[in-house]
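So, could you explain the following?
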Amino acid sequence: MRVIFVFIFLIYLFVPDVAAQEYFRMSAEFTTKTKRTSGKSNLTKGKVFYDKYSKELIYDISFPEKEKWVIQDSQIYKLIDDSVYYTETIPSLNEFTVFHLSLNSNLAYFGLNQAMYSIGKVDKMGDLVISYWNIPPQIQQMITTIAVAQKDNRLHSVVIAGEDKMVHSKQFFKDYIQVGGFEFPGTIVQIVYDDNRKENYQVIEFENVILNDTKNENNYHYQWEQH
């Protein structure tokens, strides 16, 4: 289930800090559906909370069972009844999730315009404007192509290919939710290809987005008990 936390991991290794913007905190209800090549399917429901200043990402899961996932720095903690039952070290990527990018108004180009990437060329295909990004030499052995498509000045899709020129993953962003001047994709579809070129699917749906909530501080900062 790690893909629920991280949409892309390697391409953000060279991103500088992003200046503060008007929106600093958001929450939303979410539903995640996954279907793997093995035929196994999963359904997860709950609420997600993110504060871009603390960079703490919290998933409050209500289904299939009640638990909490807390992502701080480079650690994932999974808890049931405030007791940790699982931890894992991952790249520190909270600030490069769809939540952080949206709060900083950097989602349109998938955050690449704030990183060490530059546009190599731009094409137009129907109502899509597709930009192809130059890859920093440090990661060219892993990623050779990143294509970002925009529709109506919004992020529509991201396609990433590896050194074999084969597509490794696709993401589609649609059903945008607008709250004042803030926009957030209501649906994110991710397709990841395995070594046999078979597709693993994940669909995340969001609703009831709340911005800059200052009345429920505990939802955005997990308080660890000292033992």
Remarks:
- Helices lie at 98-103.
- The longest helix spans residues 98-103.
